[in-house]
Specification:
Shape: elongated
Order of helices and strands: HEHEHEHEEHH
Structural class: alpha+beta
CATH topology of the largest domain: Alpha-Beta Plaits
Low-confidence stretches: none
CATH superfamily of the largest domain: Ribosomal protein L10, N-terminal RNA-binding domain
Number of strands: 5
Oligomer: single chain
CATH architecture of the largest domain: 2-Layer Sandwich
Number of domains: 2
Largest sheet: 5 strands, antiparallel
Helix content: 55-70%
């Protein structure tokens, strides 16, 4: 059994890990083997996240002193927390992809950018485009009007160049004849 000091140390450690997270997902992992959990941790790590099995009472105490208070209601029974300070969508995609092949892993809910999500909404986060994809789409949309403007501005110059070339060709043909 843990001493009070050890419990406080674990609470402080959990608070330090969970407080800066932009995306947190509470998962039910009952029924997963040790090998499957190891594989899940690897996939979560690839998504620049972390996965940790938590003791509910300690996790509740750690979350109580952060901005993530809404998650406390999801901490019942065996629970694990997947969290990231990077892209929450990337983490959700990794979790959802793993859950497709391992039905024992289930979303209980989550917290993304301060918004509390139920299990269904947490799954839907995985369907969103990642931050990189959104930035790429935004850049494409910003470039599109500029590209069209350049094309329109170049059209008269291009037309003049084509006309001059045709006149030069016509003069060459007249000189040869």
């Amino acid at each position: 059994m843990l001493t009070r000091a050890q419990k406080q140390e674990q609470i402080d450690t959990l608070r330090g890990m969970l407080a800066p997270a932009h995306g947190l997902f509470v998962m039910d992992f009952t029924g997963l083997s040790v090998g499957e959990v190891t594989e899940l941790r690897r996939k979560v790590k690839e998504a620049r996240g972390n996965y940790r099995v938590v003791r509910n009472t300690l996790a509740r105490l750690a979350l109580a002193e952060t901005d993530h208070r809404g998650l406390e209601q999801l901490l019942t029974g065996p629970a694990a927390v997947a969290y990231t300070e990077q892209d929450a969508v990337l983490l959700a995609k990794a979790l959802a992809e793993f859950a497709k092949t391992h039905e024992q892993l289930r979303f209980r809910g989550g917290l993304v950018e301060g918004q509390l999500l139920d299990a269904q909404q947490a799954k839907q986060v995985a369907a969103l485009p990642s931050k990189k994809e959104l930035v790429a789409k935004l850049l494409f949309l910003l470039q599109s009007p500029m590209r069209r403007l350049v094309t329109v501005l170049n059209a008269p110059v291009r037309g003049l160049a084509v006309s001059l070339h045709q006149i030069a060709d016509e003069k060459q043909r007249q000189e040869q004849a």
